[in-house]
Amino acid sequence: MMKTKIALPWMIVSLVVAVAVTALVFSLRGRGPRVERGEVAEAAVATYVAPGDLDEYYLFYSGGHSGNVFVAGVPSMRHIATIPVFTPYPSTGYGFDKESREMLGEYTWGDVHHPALSETNGEYDGRWLFVNDNANNRVARIDLRDFKVKQILGPIPNVSGYHGGSFVTPNTEYILAASRFSVPLPKGTYAPVEAYATRYKGVVSGIAVDPKTGEMSVGWQVLMPPFNFDLGDAGKGPSHGWAFWTSYNTERAIGKLEVTSTQRERDYIAAVNWKAAEQAIREGKFTMIGGVKVIDPKAVPGVVYLIPCSKSPHGVDVSPDGRYIIASGKLASITTVFNIEKILTAIQNKNFTGEEDGIPVLNYDAVKDAEVNVGLGPLHTVFDDRGYAYTSLFVESAVAKWKLGTWEVVDKIPVSYNIGHLAAAEGDTVSPDGKYLVALNKLSHGRHLGVGPSQPESSQLIDISGEKMRLLYDAFTEPEPHYAQMIKADKLKPIEVYPKEENKHPHAIWDVKDAKIERRGNEVIVKMLAVRSSFEPWKIEVNQGDKVVIHLTNIEQTTDELHGFAIGEYNINVVVDPGETKTIEFVARKPGVFPYYCTNFCSALHQEMQGYLLVKPKS
Fold first, then answer.
1. Helix or strand or coil: residue 245?
2. Pairing relation of β-strands 484-488 and 470-477?
3. Of the candidates 381, 382, 376, which has an alpha carbon nearest to the alpha carbon of residue 395?
4. Closest-CA residue to 293 (of 304, 302, 310, 280)
5. Which of 158, 399, 465, 575 is the most buried (most CB within 10 A)?
6. In this structure, what DSSP letter does residue 455 have?
7. Strand 242-248 to 228-234 pairing
């Protein structure tokens, strides 16, 4: 028996290899370059996670205008879960119960761009995941103990087009936030667009995070020229205390920006000393705009500086040791490496070449370490554990690997197609893992079964553990993963059941005898419980026009025993996890008899888990 147990995994691996090799024979008949059989077999084994085994990493993708976050495992690249954030999601009932509906507010969608894991001492700590809403200027905090949204902050005052986030500082002191679109401030102010250069303003912000609870609030803002602020990163090590954002349209142009905003040879990185911003706030050196403390850099020198970089930059990325700040211009073939020591020296020596609205512009040649000829259309850079950087090349549809310090490009791998962001294992931290890189490609061009004109996007897993990069796997996601982060699985300790003793909901009940219906004028309050395989009470009688409030507790304490609650033709649909209480509120506008039932399969008698809402007509 012992021999059988040991041999079984190898039998499975052998079978996978055989299948992969067989598949190769057929794939060689189709389009595309010839691939050696051994490479296919090795890739299949490298990404294979046997049934019952677990992936080594979590991958958190942004879901773009779906408003969601997608969760996958690496190396299998299997989709595990969707976390609804800014959009109602019937699968989990998000946006249908009172609590999540109130968090969503008046908006029914969001544009999720850049997930950011909380950090301690520059390392992912597995507590929270923050994501920004580019459309409605909000930021959300997801608790990684239960993978659920606990807070949505916003719309953030003065920020318009929250694209420059939600990157975090090394101890999660702040989440970075910046305006993609400059507007007259405060919001609601009217000014003709022809006055853009003088009356429109940008803003960069630090969203403060409570270190114990994760509660978010606006910490500080800095008034900026009307540039378009794109992406950011936080300093670490020698650059700790600084935040960096790329900006484009430093021409302050309007109209057809693909022409009018690309006239200058260079745009800027905004380097913000957030320690100095904190000090300015403490000393009262701010103006209240839109209810927020805003620092004017003209009045408070030393808070922000501008660093020239290749025009139309996208990403700015800080190396693991915090020494290098790396910016990439979309219209260039180089990525530029700036040295924090040179930046601080230039500031000290006032080695400036000009100013923008009172903000000093540093001497490019004085702060630059290198221009690395990586290839066409560089966007973003991530890092491994051996001193290499990896830059995505949108125009070239490739990833370039190059050495920090020597600036030598040592390898390049094509991807399919038009890569945007990329994510490496713990690649944004002070100690990256290497091993894996995921290319987040904008186009898939039919590398999958046809699904009509609306195509998924391509995410490709690349092995970066060796001298040469190696493509392992194609995965496909719904539009549009703008960014992702990859964290060791053992850093997360998610629960599977809400312990009864932790349920502090004031209307939770745990025994059938406590279930009840109470009328208070035109309001009917129901304390209901769900347990395999019934609801109690199973009958609710109300009058047409009554406000109905149902506090539903799932009293199960067993893994996977979720219960759904849906009322037919009333657009009511929630899912209550084991040990959880949710509140449902609605007005009984339609008379008649309406069944309610459990939507999540829970037992052999799942079909029998039902009840009736009886609404007596007004007449």
1. strand
2. unpaired
3. 376
4. 280
5. 399
6. P
7. antiparallel
Query: Residue 213 has which token pair?
Result: 């609870």
pLDDT digits (tens, 9 = 90+) for 153-184: 999 999 999 999 999 999 999 999 999 999 99
Contact partners, residue 192, CB within 8 Å, separation at least 6:
none
Q: Which residues pair with 597 in a beta bridge?
A: 566, 610
Distance CA 161, CA 183 (A): 10
Q: Which of 395, 399, 392 is nearest to 414 (CA)?
A: 399
Structure-token match 């609650």, residue found:
565
- Encoding tokens for residue 577? 């996890």
Measured between alpha carbons, how far is 602 from 532 in angstroms, rounded to an integer? 7
Inform me whether the pLDDT recorded for 18 exceeds 90: no
Name the 3-class secondary structure at 422.
strand
Q: CB of 118 within 8 A of CB of 127?
A: yes
Task: Name beta bridge partners: 438.
Answer: 423, 461
DSSP 481: -
The secondary structure of 492-551 as a DSSP string is ----SS--GGG---TT---SGGG-EEEEETTEEEEEEEEETTEEES-EEEEETT-EEEEE
- The amino acid sitting at 51 is P
Rounded Cα gap, residues 567 and 570, in angstroms: 6
Which two three-digit tokens encode residue 427? 């690649």
Report the mean per-residue pLDDT for the chain.
93
DSSP 163-184: -S---B-TTSSEEEEEBSS-B-
Among residues 195, 185, 193, 66, the alpha carbon closest in space to that of 131 is found at 66
Residue with token string 């057929």: 26
Model-level pTM?
A: 0.93
Residues 57, 487: Cα–Cα separation, whole Å = 5
